[in-house]
Amino acid sequence: MATRSPKKPAHNVHNGVNQLRIIGGQWRSRKLSFPDAPGLRPTPDRVRETLFNWLAPYVEGAKVLDPFAGSGALFLEALSRGAAMGQALDASNIAVSSLKEHLGTLRCTNGQVQTADALRYLETQTASAYDLVFLDPPFNQNLLPAVCNLLEERQWLAADSWIYTESETAPSTLGLPGNWRLHREQKSGRVYYALWQRTAEVAA
After folding, report:
1. pLDDT tens-digit profile of 51-61?
2. To the nearest whole percent, how much of the chain has pLDDT over 70?
3. Chain-centre distance of CA 60, in angstroms?
4. What order of strands is seen across the sheet that includes strand 12-14?
5. Residue 30, H or E segment
6. In which region does residue 80 sit, left (phi positive, over 0), alpha (psi from -120 to 50) or beta (all else)?
7. Structural contact between residues 129 and 157, judged by C-beta atoms closer than 8 angstroms
8. Which end of the chain is less packed: N or C, by CB atoms within 10 Å?
9. How are beta strands 17-21 and 31-35 bridged, if at all?
10. Which of 108-131 are b and which e, b meaning 16 or more Cβ less than 10 Å from the residue's Cβ?
């Protein structure tokens, strides 16, 4: 989950340190701390639980990309539930350092995380096809359309990949690639959560 404008916390806060809980999989119920940085908010437990119920048949063995990892809640949840490998990015050195510590604590060897600007990374690095992508960019910067177009145009997606988005506007207004089908959507407070399925053929 990416850094963004502060909103009501959906986690526990103790002496400037926040906690997230892994909901399912091999690290189920593990609690991990992350920095109390401005705007660093994990996807709420109830939303993560709903999302991973939607994704239940598709996570195990998947290659996962999280370009705006933030606290790492979605990234770690996917790895806990059997994803084959994961690549996480975040522009914040603090967030990346914290997530690296989590991977070490969990003795996770199939997850990688690095400090990077998502747009620049997707535009300049050699693409690898991912099965599952989490997109939770900072709000009010119109980042989703640009990121999604780069994922599609530069071949970062497997033929039948799944893409999860969080946005401040309704999924129908996002203008995402024409070959992405809206599979499920939900709204919690002012945030829209949506799951998309990619089809290989680009719509005209």
Report:
1. 999 999 999 99
2. 87
3. 16
4. 12-14, 17-21, 31-35
5. none
6. alpha
7. yes
8. C
9. antiparallel
10. beebebeebebeebbeeeeeeebb
